[in-house]
Amino acid sequence: MDKNKEEKKLPIILSNTSHQRETNLKRSLVQFWPFLKPYFGLALIGLALTIPVGILDSVIAYFLKPFMDMVMIDQDKEFAKQVPYIIVGFTLVQGIFIYVSSIVNGYVGGKINLSIREALYKKLLNSDTSFYDVNNSGSVIFRFYQDAETASSGLINNFKLFITKFFSTVSLACVMLYHSWELTLFSIGILVVLILPMRIVRRRVKKIVTRTVEGNTQIITLYNETSQGNRVIKSYGLKARMTKLFKDRADFLFHLSIHMIKDTNWLSPVMHLVTSLGVAGVLFFGLHLIMIESITSGTFVSFLAALIMLYTPLKSIGNNYIQVQQAFLAIDRVYELLDASSYEDEDDTSKKELKDINKNISFKDVHFSYNNEREILKGISFDVNVGQKVALVGNSGGGKSTVCSLIPRLYEIDSGNIFIDGVDIKEYSLKSLRDNISIVFQDSFLFQGTIRENIMCAKEDATEEELQAAIDGAYLSDFISTLEKGIDTQVGERGITLSGGQKQRVSIARAILKDAPLVILDEATSALDNKSEKIVQKALDSLMKGRTTIVIAHRLSTISDANKIVVVNEGHITEMGTHDELLKKDGDYALLYKTQFKK
């Protein structure tokens, strides 16, 4: 490969997260802010509603002082009668705030989750074709769907919990300080020893989550392969093989989950130990203060209740801390995707609009490689004039399909130029460029839905007359008339309920309806039997009529009438000419022709 050519940037490998940075609170909040910003006012209301929930904890704790002093010691019967109503009243108010805040925070969290998923889906649509070449379906589903859920729910739910416990902690600390500053300093100061364990857990969570992402993508891919390849699995007796694959991948995830438990769940017992030491110290020190009459029994009971209410959430903070770390890692992975560059993201508003193709399509010294390692096209040059039928032929793997993929910019070339009417295709907006091209692939992809929807997606505002003309041109009318629901028949995922020839004709009808000036046929009949091929070939003739056409041909009998035949072998154009001219040369094309028609 030419050393002077600039190497193209390779796409992200989704299953590889080994390069991920350690979590950082500030970075994660900055990344989260654009999704939170539209709902910030409502989020503040939701968080404000959690404040009374936390504060009421301290009210209940403080209330134990007069209860102990006035009821248990002074035997105030009138106040004792009011105690049940006061407790129920506090609990009812707290419950109302909890319920309303849950609704508000649930709405905000759901909207943020939706916003992240929408942003990721748009990014998925704008990803280069090479991105899909190197990433499997499991990686895509996990990174583009699951990470959005982990990031949004993990941060929103735990932030809500943090705000509630923050105000609960502050208010409880105030109660404790009011009762005894000595006991408060001791009971809160002991929590400093928790800093080191939490730092250790943060590093271990990152290491395990990184491997878990890889494991999850593999098992999701296996589910997809089982669904899509169920006929091959049954036909070749692969159930045992697939079961073993599943068990291996499930065991990998199981062992990772055990590692997560072993490496992080010791944090909760440590929390229990530290808090129990704090309570034990307060009991010892508090009894001393009671003996010297520095505090009353009611004050001590109130302080002890506030301390226990303060410590209780800390005992389970290990699990919440792990969830927060996982959310931070997920939002980092989300931003890795959103920040990935793609020529599909380029600004079309500053580009030229391709209205029609009036002169020609021209390749000039085009070089291309998929991965910067092996060059697929090695300086090819040829022209396709308007109205011509140009065929690309050659040995398998020679670069024919690659040539056709470069015209609608499914891939970017390494060097050279592709012109349409004398203008480099990079100067046209991607939308207008692709609007002028119809492609019928060898493997016709149909969306889950009806036959109508699969044809109409090419031109959603098409009239019934235009739709019927496309159906007639694709020789679909007879087939559709045999269906109970006709054109509104469901085709299943990837058109599974239709035969290969039927799917191909639906794709051709879609291309006819689009009515683009350039038609590209990528071995559109090579996978069909003779009977289906004849019907599909008629449909293709209808599609090609009056249009500029580039045909990748497997069966040479279908392109003998081409205006130009281009022979592509090993990334080079070895011959070019008409059918008769190339046969007379007795070169590569003649060899292919004789081999195919040899009796």
Relevant terms:
single chain; 599 residues; alpha/beta; six-stranded mixed β-sheet; four-stranded antiparallel β-sheet; 21 helices
Structural summary, described in words:
The chain has 599 residues and is α/β, with parallel strands linked by helices. 61% of the residues lie in helices and 10% in strands. The chain contains 21 helices and 10 strands. It has helices spanning 25-36, 40-73, 77-125, 129-134, 137-179, 181-189, 195-228, 230-235, 239-264, 267-291, 297-315, 317-338, 400-406, 430-435, 451-456, 464-473, 477-481, 500-514, 530-544, 579-585, 588-596, and strands spanning 360-369, 375-385, 389-393, 415-420, 423-424, 437-440, 518-522, 548-552, 564-569, 572-577. The strands form 2 sheets. It has a 6-stranded mixed beta sheet with strand order 6-7-8-3-9-10, sandwiched between helices. Helix 10 runs antiparallel to helix 11 (297-315). The longest helix has 49 residues, at 77-125. The chain is elongated and about 120 Å long. The two termini are 41 Å apart. The relative contact order is 0.09.
Can you count the helices? 21
Radius of gyration: 35 Å
Helix-strand makeup class: alpha/beta
Q: For the largest beta sheet, what order do the strands appear in spatially?
A: 6-7-8-3-9-10
Percentage of residues in strands: 5-15%
Uncertain ranges: none
What proportion of the residues is helical, as a percent range?
55-70%
**Average pLDDT, to the nearest integer?**
79
- What is the terminal separation in angstroms? 41 Å
